[in-house]
Design brief:
single chain; alpha/beta; FAD/NAD(P)-binding domain; Polyamine Oxidase, Chain A, domain 2; 3 domains; 7-stranded mixed beta sheet; 5-stranded parallel beta sheet; globular
C-alpha cells in the first residue's frame, strides 16, 4: 500500500485527538504512506493517558499499567526499541471490607476470605476459573452482571466482592452492566502487570518523535469546530480556531459526544442509534508522600461509606527514586457528573478524604503530604449494557472518507492503551479496504 501510494499522490489524513489513539494512528498511517496531521485541543499530547511532571520525571494523571495479554502494546514497545525499559512485575491486590483488608491475589487468598462461607468461596472460585478459561463471551452479551453473578457464585459473595464496586463505579447505572463486560475484566487480566521505566510518557514521546521524523504535523491548542465535505474540491474541510485545512481523509479519535458536534452532516437517526451511550468521568487525587502508604499495590474499597473507590500505591510498580524519593498514591473514583465530588476543589476533596485515609492508616498525618494533584476527565468509562455490540459506532462514518476510533467502540474489553490501539487498527483496516 505504501509503495502504491508513493507512486501516485500521497493521501492526506487529519487525525483528531492527540491521545494514545491519535498518536498510534498517525504512526501506523505514516507507515502506510499517508501524510498525517494531528489536531490536539490541549498544549500537550497524551489525552486520557497523559502525564504531569514531578521534577524531571513524568507520572500518569490516571493510573496505568499493562497486562501480559496486551499484545499490541508489546509489539509497539518492540518496534520503538523500548523493550529494555518495559517490564512486568507480580503485584499484590486487596479489598477493603468492613474496615478490614483482605489480600485477593488468587485461589489461595480466595479460600482464606473469612467473611464468606467455605461454600461461597468455593462457588466463587469455580465461577472465576470458568470466566478465566472460556473464550465465548457472546454467551454473556444478553445477561446482566447483576443477575448472572449472584445466580452462579452466590448472592453473599456477589454483594461482598462486586456489588460495592458496581455501585461506586457506575452510580445510577450500576445494575445495567453487561456480563460480557465483567467477563472481559476477568479473562484479560494477568497476574503480572507491565510498566515502563520513566512512565508511559516515554512511549508517547517516542511516537511523537517518530511522527515528526517522518514529516507529520501536530497542531496544538486546536479544538475542532467542524468537519464538512468541500463541494468544490471533493475533499474534507477541517475547521479549527477560525482556520481551515483540507484533507483526503479524517479519522476522529474524539469522544462520541464531540463527534456529534463536529460532524454536522451526521443524521439524527444515525446519532441516536450509535452515539447515545451513557458514560462516567474519572477523577484522581494524587498524594506524593514521604513514605509508603499501603501494603499492596492495589486496594479496592468495598466499604460504601468511603468517598473513594480505589487506592493505587505507585511505589510498588515504579522505583521511588524516579520521583525524587516520594511515594505517589492515587485515590481514584469514577463519578456521575451530578456527584458533588465531581466539582470539588483539591483542598475540599482532601478534607473529605482524610478521615477515611486515616481508617486505612491510623498513623497518617497530613505532614506526610509533600505534593497533591487533582485530575478529572469526562467519558472515561462507558456503561456497557446488554447487547452493547449492536450499538457500537462503526469505524466508517456515513460521510465519505470520514472514520472514527473512539473509546466507546472498545467491547467487551475495558478501556486500556492496548484496546485503544485495537480500535485504531480496526479503523485503519477499514480505510485501506475502502481505498482498494
Amino acid at each position: 500500500m505504501a509503495n502504491n501510494m508513493n507512486r501516485q499522490t500521497k493521501k492526506s489524513i487529519a487525525i483528531l485527538g492527540g491521545g494514545i489513539s491519535g498518536l498510534y494512528a498517525a504512526y501506523r498511517l505514516q507507515k502506510l504512506g499517508f501524510t498525517v496531521t494531528i489536531f490536539e485541543r490541549a498544549d500537550e499530547l497524551g489525552g486520557l493517558s497523559g502525564s504531569f511532571k514531578i521534577g524531571q520525571i513524568y507520572l500518569e494523571k490516571f493510573y496505568h499499567h499493562s497486562f501480559t495479554t496486551d499484545k499490541i502494546v508489546q509489539r509497539l514497545i518492540k518496534e520503538l526499541d523500548l523493550d529494555d525499559k518495559f517490564y512486568y512485575k507480580r503485584l499484590s491486590t486487596a479489598i477493603l471490607h468492613n474496615n478490614q483488608t483482605y489480600p485477593l491475589n488468587g485461589a489461595v487468598d480466595l479460600l482464606k476470605l473469612s467473611p464468606l462461607s467455605f461454600l461461597d468461596r468455593l462457588r466463587t472460585g469455580i465461577v472465576l476459573a470458568f470466566l478465566k478459561k472460556t473464550k465465548k463471551w457472546k454467551q454473556f452479551s444478553k445477561e446482566k452482571a447483576n443477575d448472572w453473578l449472584p445466580k452462579w457464585q452466590g448472592r453473599k459473595s456477589y454483594e461482598l466482592l462486586w456489588l460495592p464496586l458496581f455501585r461506586s463505579k457506575f452510580g445510577k447505572y450500576w445494575d445495567q452492566m453487561s456480563m460480557a463486560w465483567f467477563w472481559a475484566r476477568i479473562y484479560l487480566r494477568s497476574e503480572e502487570l507491565g510498566y515502563i521505566e520513566g512512565g508511559f510518557q516515554i512511549l508517547f514521546k517516542r511516537l511523537h518523535e517518530e511522527i515528526l521524523k517522518n514529516h507529520g504535523g501536530i497542531i496544538f491548542q486546536a479544538p475542532i469546530d467542524s468537519v464538512r465535505p468541500d463541494t468544490g474540491t471533493g475533499r474534507l474541510e477541517v475547521s479549527y480556531n477560525r482556520s481551515k485545512l483540507d484533507f483526503d481523509f479524517v479519522l476522529s479519535t474524539l469522544p462520541e459526544s464531540t463527534n456529534k458536534k463536529i460532524f454536522p452532516d451526521l443524521k439524527a437517526d444515525f446519532l441516536q442509534k450509535y452515539s447515545d451511550h451513557h458514560h462516567v468521568g474519572a477523577q484522581t487525587l494524587i498524594l506524593l508522600l514521604d513514605r509508603r502508604f499501603l501494603d499492596h499495590y492495589w486496594l479496592n474499597v468495598n466499604d460504601q461509606d468511603f468517598p473513594f473507590l480505589v487506592v493505587v500505591d505507585q511505589s510498588y510498580i515504579a522505583d521511588v527514586s524516579e520521583y525524587g524519593g516520594l511515594y505517589p498514591v492515587y485515590f481514584g473514583n469514577y463519578l456521575n457528573y451530578d456527584d458533588p465530588r465531581w466539582t470539588m476543589s483539591e483542598t475540599e476533596l482532601l478534607k473529605k478524604f482524610v478521615p477515611f485515609i486515616k481508617k486505612l492508616r491510623p498513623d497518617f498525618s497530613e505532614k506526610w503530604i509533600k505534593e497533591k494533584h487533582l485530575f478529572r476527565t469526562e467519558a472515561a468509562q462507558f456503561v456497557i449494557t446488554t447487547d452493547y455490540e449492536k450499538t457500537l459506532l462503526p469505524n466508517k462514518l456515513p460521510i465519505k472518507n470520514c472514520y472514527a476510533a473512539t473509546l466507546s467502540q472498545i467491547f467487551p474489553a475495558e478501556r486500556s492503551l492496548n484496546y485503544s490501539m485495537s480500535v485504531v487498527d480496526n479503523a485503519i483496516a477499514q480505510i485501506i479496504e475502502d481505498m482498494n
